[in-house]
Each structure stands twice: as structure tokens, then as C-alpha cells.
Design a protein that fits this description.
Layout: H1 2-19, E1 27-31, E2 34-40, E3 46-51, E4 57-62, E5 69-70, E6 81-82, E7 91-96, E8 102-109, E9 116-123, E10 129-130, E11 133-138, E12 141-150, E13 153-154, E14 158-161, E15 170-173, E16 176-181, E17 190-196, E18 204-208, E19 217-222, E20 226-227, E21 230-231, E22 235-240
């Protein structure tokens, strides 16, 4: 019965990932998660825990390769150390293992009325980067533009998202999520404008600003791509309006 319960839990989690709307790259772990924690053992197995809106504590295990597993598959002690998270956008937790790898949990909301998604990432070297600037003018309107990079390479196209045990990986199109602050569409806060796909082979993107999108600030957010062992962290850039 216990082994059957483990199998059912794994399949349930796999199905949740497979049907989750708009799952980006990196690894989407949960929505509206509170008090997230992250531990990594000597084998490179990560344990992610969080508190749900209902108040229960949930956990999953993310192995070095393959699909996510029930939390009771985590063994051994935590060998990671907490590091400064202020340099990584949207970071909840950032940790480093003795081999120099970095591990993080980030949380962000793709749409103003949508849930806050908790994402897991692991990488070495330079984190994902995205630039944002305004160019003037086309049709009398400014254009937001920039480029997205991961490990020095342009980001574009699709990225595999682990679907879960027993289910195939999904190819998810990479998008840059663009928002305006204090624009006519936002009622004083942040408002989603549009998701645009970075162009091949440069990783550049652009969006012509409608009059209703003219605000005091803008921001661009992208989920880091998955490349083998690497689940690159998400990146964000904020631009103060040039007007």
C-alpha cells in the first residue's frame, strides 16, 4: 500500500505539471506558495518545500536527471549554503553547493490577476540576463526592445519542460512577458501588456507601445531555458519611462 501511495503521488504530480497552463522553462513547482525552502544533498538531489494557501506543508524532490519525485525520496544531509539573493531577480532562496553550482527558488506573477508561480532553477556560471530599453519613434510611438541571454547565448525558440514521471517532456515556447506601471490599463499598478517571442538567432524582442500602455515604468521577465542538467534561472529588467 505504501509503494502504491508513492506511485499515485508521483503520477498526480506529473499530471499537474503536464496540464499546468503556461508552464515556462526552469521548473514550475507550485502556485501561491508561502515560506519556500530549498535543500540539496551530496548527490545533487534537491528538496523543495512550501506552505499552501490552505496551510499544509508540501514537498517534492528534483533529481539531477529525470523527473520530479515524492519528497520521501530525499536522503542524506543538506550540503548547500545560503548565499546573497539580492542580485537575482524575484529570488526567494539562493543556495550554493560545494561544487560551485547555484540553486534558486524564484516567485513571480505572469499576469496581474494570475497566481504567483514558484520556480526552481540550478546552474553554473552567469545567470540568465535580459535587457530592456526604449527607442523612439515609430508611428509616433516608442518601442520597447531588448535581448535575452543564457550562458552568453541568445534565448529563442522552445525549451523542454519536465512533464513528470511516465510522461514525455513538453516543448514550451519561450516568451518575454512585458508589463507597464501606472499606465491607463493598470489602474495604478502593474498591468500585463503582451508576451512576445524573442527572435532567432539574436534573442532580441520588441513591442510597439500603444497609448494605453504608456506608463512610468516598464518591466520585462523571462523564464530561463532548460539545457540538459541546467534549469537556468528566470530574469527580469525594469526600465523607468524616458518621457
Amino acid at each position: 500500500m505504501r509503494s502504491r501511495s508513492i506511485i499515485v503521488s508521483a503520477l498526480a504530480f506529473a499530471l499537474a505539471l503536464a496540464v499546468a497552463p503556461g508552464v515556462p522553462a526552469s521548473v514550475s513547482v507550485a502556485t501561491d506558495a508561502q515560506a519556500p525552502t530549498l535543500h540539496v544533498n551530496a548527490e545533487g538531489v534537491a528538496l523543495v518545500s512550501w506552505t499552501t494557501v490552505a496551510g499544509s506543508r508540501q514537498s517534492i524532490v528534483i533529481p539531477p536527471h529525470g523527473y520530479s519525485l515524492p519528497s520521501n525520496r530525499f536522503q542524506g544531509r543538506d550540503v548547500s549554503a545560503r548565499v546573497d539573493s539580492s542580485r537575482l531577480a524575484m529570488a526567494q532562496v539562493v543556495r550554493r553547493t560545494p561544487d560551485g553550482a547555484l540553486w534558486a527558488l524564484q516567485a513571480w506573477r505572469k499576469h496581474a490577476r494570475g497566481p504567483v508561480e514558484l520556480h526552481f532553477s540550478r546552474w553554473r556560471g552567469t545567470p540568465t540576463g535580459i535587457s530592456l530599453r526604449a527607442l523612439c519613434c515609430r508611428y509616433g510611438l516608442p518601442t520597447l526592445t531588448g535581448e535575452a541571454l543564457s550562458e552568453g547565448r541568445p534565448i529563442y525558440g522552445s525549451s523542454p519542460s519536465p512533464a513528470g514521471k511516465g510522461l514525455p517532456d513538453k516543448q514550451i515556447r519561450t516568451f518575454v512577458f512585458l508589463e507597464c506601471f501606472a499606465c491607463a490599463a493598470s489602474a495604478g499598478g502593474w498591468a500585463f501588456m503582451r508576451a512576445v517571442a524573442p527572435r532567432a538567432p539574436s534573442g532580441t524582442y520588441s513591442l510597439l507601445l500603444r497609448p494605453s500602455w504608456r506608463g512610468t515604468r516598464y518591466r520585462a521577465t523571462i523564464a530561463g531555458p532548460n539545457r540538459g542538467w541546467t534549469y537556468a534561472p528566470d530574469a527580469r529588467s525594469v526600465l523607468v519611462s524616458p518621457r
